[in-house]
Amino acid sequence: MHEYFIVQNILRTIEDLIKDYPGKRITKAVFLIGKFSGVEPDLLKTALDFFKKGSPLEDAEIVFELEDLKIRCLDCGKEAVKEKWNMICPFCGSLNTEVISGEEMFLKTLEIEEN
Ligand SMILES: [Zn+2]
Q: How many folded domains does the chain comprise?
């Protein structure tokens, strides 16, 4: 369950960030999850629900945004969204491509309560 490690890392990051806002609560946290990041949103949610108790995230609304795999072709310069994991450019057939998004998972936004 590598989601547990991910959540522990997330909470550590958030605890560091919130240190600059003493006494404030987090109202909302938005996570971006690439469809090919290897992170299961359901498992991540379960892990977050478990670990967030007593953390700054305890009362926060938690939102997951799923992100498609997107590649850019280095030969023809076009970008394409891929449903399945392959790196072939659908426009020119080149394999000379790079991933732009869809492989990572990170905390996108954190909303902290106002005064
Ligand atoms: Zn191409």
A: 1
Q: Is residue 89 marked as binding?
A: yes
Q: Is 73 annotated as a binding residue?
A: yes
Provide the domain limits for residue 93.
Answer: 2-112
Q: Please tell me the distance between residue 78's alpha carbon and the centre of ligand 1 in angstroms.
A: 6
17 labeled part of a ligand binding site = no
Q: In this predicted model, which residue has the larger pLDDT, 2 or 47? A: 47
**This prediction's pTM:** 0.83
Query: What DSSP element (H or E) covers 6?
Result: helix 2-18
Closest CA to 110 of 2, 5, 6, 20: 20
Q: What are the structure tokens assigned to 26, written together?
A: 């987090």
- How far apart are the CA of 39 and the centre of ligand 1, in A? 28
